[in-house]
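In response to reviewer comment 3 from the previous cycle, which asked for concrete evidence that the modeling workflow produces usable outputs, we include below a single protein chain processed end to end. The sequence was submitted unchanged, and the resulting structure tokens are shown without manual editing.
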Amino acid sequence: MSKHNSLKTSGGNTGNRSVLKRFERVKVLKERGQWKEGQSPIGLPKTKSEG
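The workflow returned the following structure tokens.
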């Protein structure tokens, strides 16, 4: 089954995400020095995207 034409997006026009995935948040925290090894990735503090 194919997507209806109104639901398709034009190629490459995705825009910027305002929400980071968990692994991206861990990466940002490591770069800032706020991540401790062995720390649980659950309940991470809010982080702003760099972009």
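The mean pLDDT is 82. We consider this sufficient to address the reviewer's concern, and the full set will be provided in the supplementary archive.
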